[in-house]
Amino acid sequence: MKLTFWGAAQQVTGSMFLLESDDYRILIDCGSDFDLDEIGRKNRYDEQKSVFPFDASLINTVLLTHAHIDHSGNIPNLFKEGFEGRVVCTEPTLSLTSLLLKDAANLHQKRLNARNGASGKKKGKKRKEIPRDYFVEKNVIEALDNFVPVAFGQRYRIADHVSITFYPAGHLLGAAHIVVEVFENGEKKRICFSGDIGRSNYPLLTDPQEVPDVDYLICETTYGNRLHETKEEPETALADVIKRTCVDIPGRLIIPSFSVGRTQALLFTLNKIYANHNFPNLKVFSDSPLAYSSTKVYQRHVRLLNKEARNFQEDNDMLFDFENLIYLENAEASRAISNYNEPCIIISSSGMVQGGRIEHHVEANIGNPYATILMIGYASEGTLGWRLLNGQDTISIRGKQLPVLANIEKIDVFSGHGDQNDLIKFVKMQNPDKLKGVFLVHGDQQSMADFQGKIQEMGYNNVEIPLRGRSYEL
Question: Start and end of every Beta-Casp domain (predicted)?
């Protein structure tokens, strides 16, 4: 049996791992690589003569840990390049992946239109080369027809000698640790792919579930050398910010938030705050069509949420809808919020303030000393969110240089990633005397190196940090 690391190897994004047993090939995750810029991706794809470093038609099955694009975003391209198998995941992952891939396809279509003119068919105009990894909605629909949902805890046979089981990972609705059992030469081997590991006591989601003993562990390390800073409960931390920014002064609170996962945790927490705190009737504007669609998926899968969420649903009928919540349906309604002069809360994507409607809200409020921009998660270096967090006096938005007069704050209680302690807890589920190997992925190089040292001190040996393209015989 051979395991090859084709993504999230000494970097965070692009999760993609190839497991081969006899003539059966399993791809675990098939994510978009955001660590490379567009030129870097083009050069790699040109060199490979493909989006993939392998023949897509030879893959038999894809296992998907969860819906986020850095894990699912290249699935339509896999089908475009000849894959004819199944994509196996949980039911909520199927629903959320459908939304995210269709959103990505719409973005690709807009970029194609911009490259080639509004119609793309202007006479005499040379069409620009289409990036290899662009797909449209038709490709997404063709891919989704081959998704097979499997319940948590259900042992599912994908080949005569291969079975899989999904265990709740927290992090996102439907997210899973995947244990693969392979019977080879009269011997059973177990490999666990962590996916993204959630944190304990996160709003809405169950805690990451324990997995059985395995022979090999593939573990993410996003927060491999970091601890979450905010120690308060999400409701307490957010209520404090709202009181200071919208109640004590007549201000407005702008919250950049990812549409899938983060926004649902925010809305649920706001619903609890409005139910439990004596706050005035502050309007809450949720400005993301994708967030609206994702919220309906969460509402539909209440039975998979944590006990607190299920009890709240039973007592209050709805997890996310409350009296002062307004969903903004179109771009015109989004722009009109600039004319709303009362204290309010605006939640919009993206979470790193890189593209999306949030850029307009930041631009409209960055010069307002009565406005607060609350960052609630990680922002990659170079993004607008990263520049705000690093205290720049001026920022450039849409070609305009603007002074930063708004207040910039940060809390990390809504980060869906487990920190170093959560990752250690996950690894400690395994007996160090029985575990034959640990492979660290999905983190920057320093995070991986620090986490490697940490778990080696705990007695875990054979801890590898694979390079992209490195294969291991298991």
Answer: 263-388
